[in-house]
Fold this sequence. Notes:
The protein is an alpha/beta fold. It contains 10 helices and 9 strands. It has helices at residues 5-18, 22-39, 46-55, 67-79, 83-91, 110-122, 127-138, 147-150, 177-190, 259-275, and strands at 139-140, 143-144, 153-160, 165-171, 203-206, 231-234, 238-240, 243-245, 248-251. The radius of gyration is 20 Å and the shape is globular. The mean pLDDT is 88.
Amino acid sequence: MFPSREEAEKILKEAEEHNPGAWVRHSEVVAFCAERIARQCPDMDSEKAYVLGLLHDIGRKFGIKHFGHIYDGYRYMLELGYDEVARICASHSFSIQRIEDYVGNIDVTAQQKKVIEDFINQLVYDDYDRLIQLCDSIGAAEGIVPMEERMGDTAFTYLNKETNLFKVVNVPMIDDLKEYCELASKTADEQKEYFTGPLGNDVFQCSPMPWVTYTHISHTNSGKKDNATPLFDWGKYYEKDGKVMIPISVQAHHSFVDGLHVGQFVEELQKFLNEC
């Protein structure tokens, strides 16, 4: 079962009052895309597609979470009797049908994780699962965007000041910078493990070294052809000729990135810093 269009919009509005954020507009864009695509498919219900898209992230009603929003949405929709929406709350995060490929903090109990894992493992994905996964990948808060802009999550090193040891923290990419920083800080503080699992290829790695400045930095590379994860570094800023300077390094797989793209990145970064 799934709710009517009006009821789904009411559920989303109520969720926004509990946890406002860019995720609400993202959900509306996903619903818009899903409905339009479903209208062109004779065997699909565009009204159902709209509702599933609108409520796929409804677990975010209960706070800023990673894996937790999947479990919370699944549980919440089951409690309301909307099993078809609960399915989408679980499946939309796993276009590859393996829990171990999830990028982000596993901020649920082992039992809660197993609930989702068992559910995903027994599913046979249908057109609605795939439709919402697709629309989730192109729907941002600001509207429809190229898929590559939505598929990037982030990973960064975080220093434990008590032990001087680092841990790798995984945080989903969020359009709103303030919201992203809040989630990154919360995740870093709460994460106890030094490593939560191998990184996927849809991650932007950030490894700042703010204690020293430099003119060149290089990283070891495994040489594996499928290692396409880009790596960003920056060092200690300093003043020169009345300007604040900061060294930036970008390492990327040449099969996916050319010098042109690195140049475009640097140009956009400079514009951003000029406006700060």
